[in-house]
Amino acid sequence: MDSSVILVIxxxxxxxxxxxxxxxxxxxxxxxxSLSRETRRRDASTPPDTTTPEGTSTDLVDTSAAARERADxxxxxxxxxxxxxxxxRAIAERQPVDEEELGIxxxxxxxxxxxxxxxxxxxxxxxxxxxxxxxxxxxSGFGGKVDVGNLNDxxxxxxxxxxxxxxxxxxxVQPYPTADVPKAKKITAYTPAIIKGMQxxxxxxxQKCVHLGCRVPWCETSQWFECPCHGSKYNRVGEKRGxxxxxxxxxFALEISGGSMTVDTGTIVTxxxxxxxxxxxxxxxxxxx
Length: 289
Ligand code: FES
What we know:
Blueprint: H1 3-31, H2 37-45, H3 65-78, H4 99-102, H5 106-133, E1 145-150, H6 151-158, E2 164-166, E3 171-175, H7 181-185, H8 192-199, E4 202-206, E5 218-219, E6 224-226, E7 233-234, E8 240-242, E9 251-257, E10 260-269
Antiparallel strand pairs: 1-10, 2-3, 3-4, 4-9, 5-6, 6-7, 7-8, 9-10
Helix pairs in contact: 1-5
Bound molecules: FE2/S2 (inorganic) cluster.
């Protein structure tokens, strides 16, 4: 799937969650402190308790007219003057509805606005993080397959005893003597993909020194790669010849198709161990380092 499509889906999903969160939070707040409709209906349908408590003597119940009158007065004073039927419950006075309760209050508006802003910010950050960590597909720069150049140009350069360098791939393309492939096959660090390139007469070497990561330049006089940082040296095909490097230069798999070469920089193939010397190439002149 294209990474931009994934990015759009991720943004939409995160925004959806943010909006859902805001709505749920607002609904919960609005319902706090009020009784549900079902509870109110059940409460209204409950008949008043008019039974005489068990064991109460009728003698003790004040049924005189004066007592009833006092009770009515007390009810009137409690209900604010609204007449209350004897033995019944008070008739609720209709209160005008607060218009703000019908819509959204200013406080709710600001709260939701702040939450929405936070949601958008989190969504943006999440989408950017996803885009950063998502593995690239169809990448043409370093980290993917790089078309390093036309085969004629490559052959022309290496025929002058200079490696063909491609900056986008951070790669040196060097010739590999096909007669030495049987020896290379005995080195387990040379994977089938690397052997395949050697059989076609090439190796693609990562420019990074395996000691501490300096870019290793080519020395035309010695015909070796010589690292200026701490003096590691590698022969023409990247096998270690001296210095503190723990192994030979790392490789990339290469493919030749339609007259051009592609190097897969998505997979770094670890270089051969110290002591590997499949080509037997000695320094051909003065060292540069
Ligand atoms: Fe190359 Fe140390 S980085 S020798």
